Every structure is written in C-alpha cells, then in structure tokens.
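#struct-help
A.M.: can someone run this one for me? Single chain, 453 residues.
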Amino acid sequence: MNAQNKITYQKVEARQNALDPKWVTYDAKTIDKLPGFKTKKTESTSIYGGFKVWQKEATGFFRTEKIDNRWWIIDPEGYPFIYKGIAVFNAGRSVNQQKAFDKKYGSKENWVKQESKLLRNNGFNGVGAWSNVDLVKNAENPLVYTVIISPMGMYHSDHIKKYGGKYKEASWQNYRFDLVMVFDKEFDSYVQKSVEEVSQYKNDKYLMGYFTDNELPWYNDALDKHLTLLAKDEQGYIAAKAWLDQRKGFNASLSDVTQEDRMAFTAFYFETYMKKVTEALRKADPNHLYLGCRFNQDKEQELTNPEIFKVAGKYMDIISINHYRKWEPSQELMNNWGEWSGKPFLITEWYTKGEDSGLPNNTGAGWLVRTQKERGLFYQNFTLDLLKNKNSVGWHWFKYMDNDPQDLSTDYSNRDSNKGIVNSNFEPYLPLLKEMKVINDNAYELTRYFDKK
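D.P.: on it. Structure tokens below:
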C-alpha cells in the first residue's frame, strides 16, 4: 500500500442544488494532507502579483511561455504568474446592495481600494469577466483584470428581434436551433463594432487580455441543423451546403454524413467565428492576450472534440473554460486540452454554494455544500488538481458577491444563490477565505511540489 492510499481526506457532502434531495459524499483533498509539503510565508511578488522566484524576458505586457513542459503566464516584468482571480468584481446593483454599499464605503473609490485589499490579503491577484474595469484600472494599485466583449451576443440581441423577440425553437443561451450565426455577413459589422472599445486598453500593462462571448453552443450536430432546420436561402444553410458539396461531392446528402464529417464541420464552423474575431481584435490591440470565447464545460461537447481544440490553439493564447457540475477537473481531459491545442487553459468560472448562507440556493450550476468552510475545502480540492496539471495557468472563482434574491432584474441563474466571497451586505465569508488563502499563498510552491513528483 503506498502513502497516497493511507491518506484520510476530509469528507464533504454535496448536492446539485437545494431542490435535489440526494446528498453525495466526496473526498476533499487539502494542502495539509500533501505528504512532505510545508506551507511557506507568501512569496515576494511583483506589482502585478507574479512570483519573484525566477525571471524571463520582460515584454511590458502579459504573455505565455512553456518552460520545462509546464505552461506559465509571464507578467510584464518577466515573472511567473498564476492567475488567481475573482469574477464579477463589482459592487452589486440591487436596492439592498446599494444601501449596504453606501453605508460601508461611501464612494466607489473607497470600495475598490478596500476590496482590492481584501482580495490581495487572501492571495488573489486579479479579477475576471464582468468586473468593474473602469474602477479597477484607475485604482491607485490596480489588480490585474480582463475585458469581455460580446460580438455574437450583440448580433444575437438584434437577430432575435427579426423573430418578434422569440425564436420558435431555441435552448442553450437562447440561440435559434442552438446555432451560432457565424456565416452571416451582418455579423461582421458587430465584430468591428465590439472591438472599437478596446483601443482604450491597448497600452495598459495591468490588462491580461480579452474574452469574446460566453458559452456559445458549439455542438457536434451543427452540420445536421444547418442543413435541415435553416431555409435554403439562409447564409448558414448556403455555407454548410457548400462545405458538404466540397467534402463529399454535389450529390451528397445527410445520409452520407459520418461522425468524422460532423466533427470536421464543427471545426470549420468554429474557425469561421475565430478568424473573424481574432483578426479584428489583434488589429485593434496587438499587445494583449486573446483568452478565447469561454467554453462551457457543463455541456461538454466541444471539450471532448479534438478538432475544436486544434482550431482554438491556432487563435487563442489561453483557452478559457467555465467548469461546473464536476467535483474536480479530470487530469486526462486537461492533458488532452493541452495536447490537442498546444496551448494553456484557464478555468474562468466555477464555485460552490453553502447552506449556512441563509439563501435559497435553488439556481446556478455550482454544487451545494453545508458550510462556508466546506466551500473552502471544495476550493482546495479543485485548485490542487489545477496546480498539478502543467497546462493550467489559473482560475477565476465565480464570483465576488452573493446574489440578492430580491433583485428580479437578473437572469434566473443569478437569482438566489451563495456564490460570493462576500454576502449582499459586503461581509466576507471568513471560513471560506481562510481555506482559499492557504492555497493562493502557496500556489507557486505547489507547482514545484507536483512537478518534482
């Protein structure tokens, strides 16, 4: 029996949400159970939060580099940087949240100063998508940040109006037939429009890079849907039919299509989007990283499609993945992502909710556990697996602040759940942050520990 088998991990009970009657017990790997690992005081860091342990070429902007078979983000000063971020770093918009904000902070500048300090004190070095970028970038001591633009999202908002505001058939993310309208010439002007705003960030050293769109449905049956659900004069049908004619001959029909054809078409369809957005983005800002279009791990089809990843690797600097409904990430799958794409990845959304928050916790994709401490144990278990994997360059916890159940203006999935590191009154969940901090502070040493093994 090896040492690994003798370790007794803490047990954590979890369920999908408060409506699920079934609790399942999971092991939670934690830093204190790593044989021979000694936690250290926080490493000295650069102004960006990179670890001052070694230094490579400093280009003045963030970049990536593979060193001894491990991918790294390299900060503008040349130091290794593991992105430990919090998404949706903003002060809430509901009436209740505004009241609490005014009472505690008095001003936006005071909020960003105090809460940036809270993040740094707990080992975080940046913020993720949908954060208050203007406040963050203009702070006295800025956190590293990202910008999300949504060219397809903008086009989709107008496209649906042609159908009276509702498609006859739509499901995931409310796209018609689950198809992304990449072949439409009209989409091109939305790409141009969405990149106009990025020139203001072009020279900002604290910007990591850009996301374009979130969780678009890159499904493996896209060829079938283009050919059977779209009218013959629609641009998507015309493009799909031309692709099939070229691949299989003019007389080919759906009955001739193989699974290999479907995967190849999905790659072609995805690449049409990637070409358009990256060309425009690189032209508008050649200095910063392209962090991709945020794949959705929950639906998972694109994440097991090597063809999609080959395309992603051609265009993205870092591949971004929202990761839900798995207790921990799969090493085999993470290895595949790196092998197929030749690029590192970043987990851009993930969280778990606590029963002790007093919130209903009916909505959202994160697990439900019993306590804030157990939320922290989940964080440790998950991030240890990320740090072990040489293709992983960090993570963004979703999110800074809890939902306010009384705010009915938000979408349903962000309505009533404990996702934050602070509650709706801006009170931090200290048992959660305590468990997060020990991993965050030791992140670099943990990579060394795992690499030696």
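A.M.: thanks! The longest strand covers residues 207-212.
D.P.: also worth noting: The first helix runs from residue 3 to 6.
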